[in-house]
Amino acid sequence: MKNFRVAVWVAVIIVAAVLGWLTLNITKTRDMPLAEGPFGVPFTLVSQSGEPITEQALRGKPTAVFFGFTHCPEVCPTTLFELSGWMEKVDPAGDKIQAYFVTVDPERDTPEIMNQYVSNVSKRITGISGPPEKVADVIKGFRVYAKKVPVDEKDPNGEYTMDHTASVFLLDSEGRFAGTIAYGENPDTAVKKLENLISKG
Known about the structure:
Blueprint: H1 2-31, E1 44-47, E2 52-54, E3 63-68, H2 75-90, E4 98-103, H3 111-121, E5 125-129, H4 132-141, E6 146-150, E7 160-164, E8 168-171, E9 177-181, H5 187-200
Parallel strand pairs: 3-4, 4-5
Antiparallel strand pairs: 1-2, 1-5, 3-8, 6-7, 8-9
Helix pairs in contact: 2-5
């Protein structure tokens, strides 16, 4: 019985020590400044107008970036429509904030398709596509989840949809990560986030 009590106390001390270490490190992490460098990775892709576009397009003014695809039934068109409306509200003149829609399905989403799709939803957002391997590098570099999912499990090479991250990434004028707007976020909260992004520059 005595040995059992000793074992219990030893376990309690070990757990307490681990919790103390975790608390210390979490506190340190919380106090650390955000990364100073631009978010994502360097890239050379193609805009919806067919022109080359690089990561430098995400500099110079606050930027919203959304990853999705044109065959998306609900999340993507809803997000693009809402984002465009929020931008009109916080920046009526269209000179303080910019936005980009990067495809996670470049095999189907050519620049021409992106142009037709995005232009029908918004004049404030620019579509980006490119070679699949280069788009894959950007998806990975922005820590975005994207996965091809067959519509019919028995036909893995047939029709498919895409599972993907549904948040809008917010970057400051130097391309640094400044937060996200979640899918389904309260509109007032989303607008406030964009206003704060603009005010910080």
